[in-house]
């Protein structure tokens, strides 16, 4: 199944750095089976906030070919010219259609954050917090400000920063080894 690499350039900070990247990037695709579909062609932002300065869409024979190209030493060396020169989102998506609506974006079922185990809720209940307070307390991405939640039910502790699942901390016991899912990635509270 073909795969598509989509790059959305949000802003350019260093045009010369981008030009250096562009002059070297094309050669990295040799032998990868990549087929450029749209490379900085005119576009219209139909929805969203933007800004979007440019779009690149490249088709690869499959996901593995795209990952091999992206992880190659050749591309990684060239990518250094782009880093810091622009704010870019790079997305790799497998071609095809998930036909059943209930199978689309399964990580979003149950709200913005889905508690995968009951450990966090149980820890909050032991502290006398309601489930709604617990959601405010734990459903924060790693980039969220580290400020205490305050409302009619103030929390006794600051919200913990989040770290990837599988990382252990001394709070594992205190927080009941609870895990959550945020943006498709499992996370657990950290110290």
Summary, kept brief:
The protein is α+β, with helices and mostly antiparallel strands.
CATH architectural grouping of the largest domain: 2-Layer Sandwich
Spatial strand arrangement across the major sheet: 2-3-1-4
As for the number of domains, it is 2
Shape: globular
What CATH calls the topology of the largest domain is Alpha-Beta Plaits
Order of helices and strands: EHEEHHEEHHEHEE
Low-confidence stretches: 112-118, 130-160, 163-184
How does the major sheet shape up?
4 strands, antiparallel
Number of strands: 8
Query: Which value, in Å, is the CA radius of gyration?
Result: 21 Å
* Termini separation: 43 Å
CATH class of the largest domain: Alpha Beta
Strand fraction band? Answer: 15-25%
Task: Walk me through this protein's architecture.
- The protein has six helices and eight strands.
- The protein has 191 residues and is α+β, with helices and mostly antiparallel strands.
- It has two domains: 3-96, Alpha-Beta Plaits (2-Layer Sandwich), CATH 3.30.70.100; 107-189, no CATH class.
- The strands form two sheets. The chain has a four-stranded antiparallel sheet. It has a four-stranded antiparallel sheet with strand order 5-7-8-6, with no helix packed on it.
- Helix 1 runs antiparallel to helix 3 (73-82) and helix 4 packs across helix 5.
